[in-house]
Write a structure and sequence with these properties.
The protein is mostly helical and 259 residues long. The chain has helices at 2-13, 17-30, 33-46, 52-56, 61-67, 78-91, 96-99, 101-106, 110-123, 131-136, 148-161, 166-179, 183-208, 213-224, 232-242.
Length: 259
């Protein structure tokens, strides 16, 4: 209890949005409501235009939609977290016992092992649940209040167009497709969905073509170290451009059937 109280006190005093994003995710993973509340409230005060702390806060959906009117982006600071952990693992190198013999041989340098470990930890962290939000932003629920559809469209557009996460961008596009109600907006949503599907397909094809996992990790970490690389979306686009792959699908391209 004393340690928990000290952690919350440290969060309340923090001016580091990246550290607060880590605390919010840790609180969510541990089902620690006090830590989630403290970290997201402080995070919101530092980044009032950021939708991420609102989603991590698990506030009631009506409050969330109203609060989201001030947001302009979804920034989870995921890649900042990866860089932070990678630097830490390089300062205190991971041992062969910690990685296992196979991974030690597969990633021959300390830098590679640090980066792979950092990315694996980040990838395993919890994302906020969007189920209450998506349920409130579909079908008849869109007419529950006079402002519901407009608020849902606002959140959907932020996630679809201004997210640092591929998962959240995809969720935003899906929300947008379900909430739009004009021919113009439906066309925009369809184009976003098609472009996203094309880039995801091409990116997975690119990754699967690299049979050398160390080479794949080196390519990823090289892009990640770029000072202007701030999101999964930007990294995906940069990886495709390097291979001369268009970010827009050919007119006759048909997305593969997921089944």
């Amino acid at each position: 209890d004393a340690l928990a109280r000290q952690l919350i006190a440290d969060v309340d005093r923090s001016d580091d949005a990246v550290a607060l994003s880590v605390a919010a995710q840790a609180g969510a993973a541990l089902a620690d409501k006090a830590l989630v509340t403290a970290s997201t409230q402080r995070w919101r005060s530092l980044e009032q235009d950021n939708l991420a702390p609102l989603l991590f806060s698990a506030m009631p959906v009506d409050e969330l939609l109203v609060a989201s009117r001030k947001a302009t982006r979804y920034q989870s600071h995921g890649y900042d977290q990866v860089r932070l952990m990678s630097d830490a693992f390089q300062r205190v190198p991971i041992s062969r016992q910690e990685t296992g013999a196979a991974a030690w041989e597969e990633y021959p340098s300390a830098e590679l092992r640090a980066g792979v470990a950092a990315f694996a930890i980040w990838a395993a962290q919890s994302f906020p649940s969007l189920k209450p939000l998506t349920n409130a932003c579909r079908d008849a629920a869109l007419e529950a209040t006079p402002a519901r559809r407009a608020d849902c469209l606002n959140v959907a557009r932020i996630l679809a167009n201004h997210s640092d996460s591929l998962l959240m961008a995809g969720m935003g596009i899906g929300m947008l497709e379900r909430a739009v109600n004009t021919p113009e907006d439906k066309a925009v949503a369809a184009t976003l969905a098609r472009n996203h599907a094309w880039q995801q397909h091409q990116y997975f094809e690119l990754l699967s073509s690299r049979h050398d996992t160390a080479q794949e990790a080196e390519a990823f970490l090289r892009l990640l170290r770029s000072p202007d690389m701030d999101s999964e979306i930007e990294l995906r686009e940069a990886a495709l451009r390097e291979q001369g792959i268009s970010l827009l699908p050919p007119p006759d391209w048909v997305a593969p059937n997921p089944g």
